């Protein structure tokens, strides 16, 4: 009886832990979907003027409307776009009536890196963003070749003479530049995978517990 009881308690305890982890991830999934929905709503809201001294937290993804002049000078950030391949993000200075901002104009292919692009007066629709792309493995930029590996708002604005405020263009700023607007695709949401994993493990654990319980009882009957 002792071995049967131990197997039963051990099996139920493990099952309870795995089910509770699955339920926790299910709650996290609901929470994350709500966060992503809020971000999507913020991204697609009506554009406003860029506030003076925008906040990286409360103004992240804020849709903005710019009227001003695209200036000369660019920084080329090496990226890869799905189903397209490698190329560069084009970062350039843009001056409005109140401030000089950094604009991510979008994507060009490798061979178009140094192709002249439209400058001068224009209107831009985009979103404020503070990308987090720097870690210990990020290579230093090749300044001579003007090849960068991240949109570093601590360095790039000083190079181009702008404020550390980045607007990612949604509208076209040049016929040969493809905008890469802000979206939620880069925000990880693996909670559904974790839900399936924990509940799958719970199912396997339940099956194994039933099997060991049957084996324990069968061994006990054989001893009797």
Oligomer: single chain
- Widest sheet, order of strands: 1-3-4-6-5
Query: H/E order of the elements?
Result: HEEEEEHEH
* Cα-based radius of gyration, to the nearest Å: 27 Å
Give the strand tally: 6
In the residues, how many domains can be counted?
2
Q: Tell me the CATH architecture of the largest domain.
A: Beta Barrel
Termini Cα gap = 12 Å
* Low confidence ranges: none
CATH topology-level name of the largest domain:
OB fold (Dihydrolipoamide Acetyltransferase, E2P)
Main sheet summary: 5 strands, mixed, barrel
Look at the helices and sheets and give the structural class.
Answer: alpha+beta
Would you state the CATH class of the largest domain?
Mainly Beta
Percent of residues in beta strands = 15-25%
| Helical segment count | 3
Helix content: 25-40%
Shape label: elongated
Word description of this protein:
The structure is a single chain. This protein has two domains: 2-39 and 189-223; 62-169, OB fold (Dihydrolipoamide Acetyltransferase, E2P), CATH 2.40.50. The chain is 36% helix and 22% strand. The protein has three helices and six strands. The chain has a five-stranded mixed beta barrel. It is elongated, with a radius of gyration of 27 Å. 24% of the residues are buried.
Structure described in brief:
With 224 residues, this protein is α+β, with helices and mostly antiparallel strands.
Q: Which key terms come to mind for this protein?
A:
5-stranded mixed beta barrel; 22% strand; OB fold (Dihydrolipoamide Acetyltransferase, E2P); 2 domains; 224 residues; alpha+beta; 36% helix
């Amino acid at each position: 009886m002792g071995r049967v009881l131990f197997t039963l308690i051990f099996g139920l305890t493990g099952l309870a832990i795995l089910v509770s982890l699955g339920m926790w991830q299910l709650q996290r999934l609901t929470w994350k979907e709500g966060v992503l929905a809020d971000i999507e709503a913020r991204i697609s809201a009506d554009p406003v003027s860029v506030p003076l001294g925008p906040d990286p937290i409360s103004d992240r993804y804020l849709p903005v409307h710019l009227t001003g002049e695209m200036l000369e000078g660019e920084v080329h950030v090496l990226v890869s776009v799905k189903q397209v391949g490698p190329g560069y993000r084009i970062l350039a200075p843009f001056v409005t009536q109140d401030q000089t901002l950094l604009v991510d104009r979008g994507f060009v292919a490798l061979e178009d890196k140094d192709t002249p692009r439209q400058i001068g007066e224009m209107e831009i629709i985009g979103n404020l963003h503070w990308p987090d792309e720097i870690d210990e493995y990020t290579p230093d930029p090749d300044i001579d070749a003007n090849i960068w590996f991240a949109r570093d708002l601590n360095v790039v604005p000083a190079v181009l003479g702008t404020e550390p405020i980045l607007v990612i263009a949604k509208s076209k700023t040049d016929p040969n530049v493809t905008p890469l607007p802000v979206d939620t695709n880069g925000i990880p949401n693996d909670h559904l995978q974790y839900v399936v994993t924990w509940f799958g493990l719970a199912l396997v654990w339940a099956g194994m517990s039933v099997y060991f319980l049957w084996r324990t009882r069968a061994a006990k009957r054989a001893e009797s």
